[in-house]
Amino acid sequence: QVQLVESGGGLVQPGGSLSLSCEASGFTFSTYAMNWYRQVPGKERELVASISSAGGGINYADSVKGRFTISRDNTKNTVSLQMNSLKPEDTAVYYCNARWFGYNYWGQGTQVTVSS
């Protein structure tokens, strides 16, 4: 059974930091590219950051470059998103995603709220 379980969301003040984690099971994690998406009500889901299966290829949305860092540990089947200098516009539900050819898995999402 494929599972992606996100954790680490919460409420943080502008300028603060949060670290999201996603624990994967039920598939061969090391062969999948991993992605973090986010979504706010009424908007399409947005790709925030991606990391290739071995970790050598990393990409970020322009809106988070220099503030967010994606990483993965293939020995622990986890992918993380370190978010620094958070802004109110970063408020969203953040989703972990695993993708390999036609296989595409999603976590349940974790809420991140940036507010004073």
What fraction of residues sit in β-strands? over 45%
Largest sheet: 7 strands, mixed
How far the N terminus sits from the C terminus, by CA atoms, comes to: 40 Å
* Spans of at least 5 consecutive residues with low confidence: none
Q: How many separate helices?
A: 0
- What is the SS-derived class? mainly beta
Mean pLDDT: 97
Radius of gyration: 13 Å
Shape: globular
SSE order, as H and E?
EEEEEEEEEEE
SS elements, strand count: 11
| Helix fraction bin | under 10%
Structural account:
The chain is mainly β. The protein has strands at 3-7, 10-12, 18-25, 33-39, 46-51, 58-60, 68-73, 78-83, 92-100, 103-106, 110-114. Strands 2, 4, 5, 6, 9, 10 and 11 form a 7-stranded mixed β-sheet that branches. The termini are far apart.
In short:
The protein has 116 residues and is mostly beta strands.
Reconstruct the topology from this structure:
Layout: E1 3-7, E2 10-12, E3 18-25, E4 33-39, E5 46-51, E6 58-60, E7 68-73, E8 78-83, E9 92-100, E10 103-106, E11 110-114
Parallel strand pairs: 2-11
Antiparallel strand pairs: 1-3, 3-8, 4-5, 4-9, 5-6, 7-8, 9-10, 9-11
Give the key terms.
single chain; mainly beta; seven-stranded mixed beta sheet; four-stranded antiparallel beta sheet
